[in-house]
Amino acid sequence: MADILKNKKILLIIGGGIAAYKCLDLIRRLKDRGVEIKAILTRGGEQFVTPLSISSLTENKVYQELFSLTDEAEMGHIRLSRENDLILVAPATADLMAKMATGIADNLATTTLLATNKPVMVAPTMNSEMWGNPATQNNLNVLKNRDVAIIPPADGNLACGEVGTGRLAEVDDIISHIEAFFLSITNNPLNGKKIIVTAGPTHETIDPVRYIANRSSGKQGYAIAESLRMKGADVILVSGPTNLKTPNGVDRRNVISAQEMMEETKRTLPADAVICVAAVADWRVKEPKTQKIKKQNSAIPRLEFTENPDILKTVSTDKKRRPSLVIGFAAETENVTEYAKDKLARKGCDWIIANDISGDVMGGDENKVYLITNTGIESWPSMSKSRVADNIAQKIEAYFKEHQ
Ligand code: C5P
Question: Does 248 or 2 have the greater pLDDT score?
Answer without folding.
Answer: 248
